[in-house]
Amino acid sequence: MARKALYMGPRLKRVRRELGLTQANMAEDLEISASYIALMERNQRPVTADMLLKLATTYHVDIADLAQGESEQTAENLAAALRDPLFADIDLPGLDVGDIATSYPTFAEALLRLFAAYRQEHVALADLRAGGEGESPASQPDPVAQVRGFLAAHRNCFPDLDDSAARAARDMPDLAGMRDRIQERHGLAVRFEDDGLMAGAVRFHDYHRRRILINEGLPNAGRRFQVALQLAILEQGEAIDALVADAALTSEDARVLARRALQSYWAAAVLMPYAAVLKAAEGLRYDVELIAARFEVSFEQAAHRLTTLQRPGAKGIPFFFLRVDRAGNVSKRLDGAGFPFARSGGACPLWNIHHVFDRPRRVDAQVIALPDGERYLSIARTVSAGHGGYGAPRVTRAVALTCAAKHADRTIYADAPGNAEPTPIGVTCRLCQRPRCLARSAPPIGREIAPHRFRDTGVPFAFASE
């Protein structure tokens, strides 16, 4: 029986771009012509078994990942897009969706890009509505949004910084090693001082006395991170400046925030080297608390690091990360996992990130379902920030790690009781079309509110079509 031809043009192109290669570079590595690479990427030539094996061995990527049908993933993404309420009155059978993905992959990709743009603009409209009628968006670009976009464009993964940090970590496996490196290489003594001398600071570079002061009120994880962060400032300026220079950042504020983010990235990579943390994550089934204990870091540091494991050829689960306070204000967000999130207007109160404040420092796992049918696993817990003794100011926030439900079985949290049925949530009330929601705080865009002159359902903002 003849083997089915394997066409994987979009996947091959994505792998090539992730590796930073041109068609000519890849052709030279594989000892074929650049025109043949172009034909395979356009699905005008199949990828043979020999070529698939050569790709895997040359670039050290998983052959199973390479061989996975691109049309299957495209069909899955198309089916998810078509579950949006916008297409509720269109009957498009699953077989037709599969045929489109297989026979017209370029058209399918164009449709998915258009739908992504629609969703983005829809979210922006909801954000604008949440700001109040008559208000106009700020004329100046938001530096925080720019930096989030910069990190998202890189999937929050910077392999060069990871490699540099891994090399440094081999020479300084503990806090004492980091202190010695700062002393020997930079002539700076590292000391831990009381809050009175620090005047509320967590770290201070005393330039004239040639010393680095760290607040002794920090927990051990905080001390280690601050020393590693100081090393990033001292040693990684050139590499970080090069990354910032290549980013499309239009203000000095954005560049400052980007440098801080990359310095923190390098510091976390020293405490949790990429290969070691990926191996631990897979071995421990992404148990964030156990990962934090193994690397002697905080829960938030471990959760944050898990979002960075997207290196080509050595990827972990793609996660979306969010940190909020009790009022729902977002203080940190790392985009990933394809999880939609409105930038303002409030998140859904049914999401477990808002429930964990009732059970401090306890991990909660929740399967959630969005209105389009997509399901995600959400892992949430409270974290605390602050330092010093009795009476010192502290703040409690909640963090959530969210991944697509298809990855849930790779985590320990898939075994949590109560996850058989997903909790229906919305991205924000302005975008959620779910009827009869008692938690709704605003009507969705494009729906009329039912007058209910003779009947009251008790549901706020009930739809006219109910």
TrEMBL record:
Report the superkingdom from the record.
Bacteria
Q: Which PROSITE patterns match?
A: HTH_CROC1
Q: Which CDD domains match?
A: HTH_XRE
One Pfam family matching this protein:
ScfRs
Which residues span the membrane?
Answer: none
Query: In Gene Ontology terms, what is one molecular function of this protein?
Result: DNA binding
Is Cell cycle there in the keyword field? no
Under the heading InterPro entries, the entry gives: Cro/C1-type_HTH, HTH_RamB, IrrE_HExxH, Lambda_DNA-bd_dom_sf, ScfR_C, TransReg_Diox_bact_type
Domain (HTH cro/C1-type): residue spans on this chain? 12-66
Q: What name goes with this protein?
A: XRE family transcriptional regulator
Q: Which family does it belong to?
A: Belongs to the short-chain fatty acyl-CoA assimilation regulator (ScfR) family.
Keywords assigned? DNA-binding, Transcription, Transcription regulation
Coiled-coil annotated spans? none
Gene Ontology cellular component annotations, sorted alphabetically: cytosol
